[in-house]
Amino acid sequence: MKCLVTGGNVKVLGKAVHSLSRIGDELYLEPLEDGLSLRTVNSSRSAYACFLFAPLFFQQYQVATPDQDPARCKVLMKSFLSVFRSLAMLEKTVEKCCISLNGRSSRLVVQLHCKYGVRKIHNLSFQDCESLQAVFDPASCSHVLRAPARVLGEAVLPFPPALAEVTLGVVRGPRVILRSYLEEEEAVTAGVLRPMVTEMSLREEDFQELQAQEGVAITFCLKEFRGLLSFAESTNLSLSIHFDVPGRPAIFTVEDSLLDGHFVLATLSEPDSQPQGLGTPQLPAPPLQAPSTPHLDDFTSDDIDSFMIAMETTVGSDASRAQLPPSLSPGPQPPCSPDSNSEEAEPSTVPGTPPPKKFRSLFFGSILAPAYSPQGPSPVLAEDSEGEG
Amino acid sequence: MKFRAKIVDTACLNNFTRVSNMIAKLAKTCTLRISPDKLNFILLDKVANGGVSMWCELEQENFFNEFQMEGISEENNEIYIELTPENLSRALKTAQNARALKVKLTNKHFPCLTISIELLSISSSSRTVTHDIPIKVIPRKLWKDLQEPTVPESDVSIYLPVLKTMKSVVEKMKNISNHLIIEANLNGELNLKIETELVCVTTHFKDLGSPPLASESPSQSRNLEEMAEVRIDIRKFLQFLAGQQVNPTKALCNIVNNRVVHFDLLHEDVSLQYFIPALS
């Protein structure tokens, strides 16, 4: 593998690494025919992120030298990030950046060619790995929001940095609201004043696309969202949010001709999330934990390991970016009735595509487990569908 | 009990933001008293605050374009609530380019002071941010503990030097000692002093002047050179200085020998009294 990045693109790459670093501790690099992909997943498997830089993004892009197999590898996020730590430095002094895989010395080599002939060479140790791929399909999500990153960036600005989750919803107007999500325990601590609840309300006009019924709402982690937002803001891109009923992952995407980025974040499954709860800031009382706290306890640790192994091995490089073929995906759906939702329980289990199904359950199994395992999927999904009514 | 108010003027909004930032620096939680013509931020003599008291007063009409309130009864036309000023300050931070700001008392599953801000945006569409600041309504029977503190008869009353200068001096002193001695006389001299086993540092301010009223008071019988002093917690003093972003039009320091130091700051539209007790 050899990739040469020049000019302003070095900073774009750096920014992408910064936003990935908000999620995972390991960075998966994979040179593909359609570009270099950088991926990561967080330790609780509740957030996954990937960037794909098209070959045109690079001045030179070589998947594999003739005597090499196309190689993918994973490196420590920390060490990769340190190469791109200072964005100002990247912008001011770095003229080009060359990323190559040195098979003989088993090092991932990142060379920064700076002004005045200074050259910084970082040799990072890496591990061979299988492809990391979450299975998700934005087209299968019934709701889509799209807005310039700046608009969304301004919208999350009022929220305190320490806030873990926000609720995103659509209310009458239609208006899109973002509200601080507080867990019940946080909310009622005797004797102490509760935390402040902040709500941002945006008009439809601020959005380039708003395809969601009133009353829908999801709750997700703010930190990861902010990561992607800062990337999208710096590159002046629009950000799309694809989401479905609470508890199903939300997909945040940015796209450009040279790159695309996908962040898949678990959303909080709230059996009692009522659409009208959005109008009046009632504090929801979810018995569930936040997505940031994995339900690892529900599984033995062995299971988690086998999840990881399965996840890393099931999909080969061919399928690694494969999403469900468009023809098979449910596509934008009309408001889901409870029935259609219970079909959603095993959503796109199209014959012949077992890996996606497996992935879905593996990937977000640990998150959905508390809702799913005790009662089985159907009741929960049926309940959630109240949100569509 | 009702309260709603509105600010549309940018200068007023900025002033109000400045006041709330100052209060946030001075107190973790405080009482807000709402009466028909003024607002008070109150912190009184709680042991948890190390005995520090604060009384901040602003005329509502200097800030609000609309102001409606209805106290708990006609004869007690006031509202006392407890809130975290940090929340207020954070809420107002988002109002920097606001078209309008509304404040009202609400009950959204818990009592709140709701700040809703109509933001200007580049497109003509309006955005609103709402902050629900949780509050506790203070019952009538506790009001008596929240009245304006009386200023004790002071031994020395003196104008303060520029607060920023004092702040940079005290900031350095804080690294050496936890206690600060403030001493002053009627001859316009003020000393900030720290003493440790190893070192004694004093900063002298001269020609500060005393308010005319004080010089006619009985304490006039005092020797002009005689110092009145008070030993206080240096962090409390620094906290007070750090809260002052704008130099006040009048800044007065009243020292009651070995008992308390009282600072009386007057801004254009806000007055702040701050009491730091002497350490025994």
UniProtKB/TrEMBL annotation, chain A:
The gene is RAD9A. Pfam families: Rad9. InterPro entries: DNA_clamp_sf (IPR046938), Rad9 (IPR026584), Rad9/Ddc1 (IPR007268). Residues 270-301, 316-360, 370-389 are annotated as: Disordered. This is Cell cycle checkpoint control protein. Belongs to the rad9 family. CDD domains: PCNA. Residues 327-337 have a biased composition (Pro residues). Residues 273-282 have a biased composition (Low complexity).
TrEMBL record, chain B:
Transmembrane segments: none annotated. It comes from the Eukaryota. SUPFAM superfamilies: DNA clamp (SSF55979). InterPro entries: DNA_clamp_sf, HUS1, HUS1/Mec3. Belongs to the HUS1 family. This is Checkpoint protein.
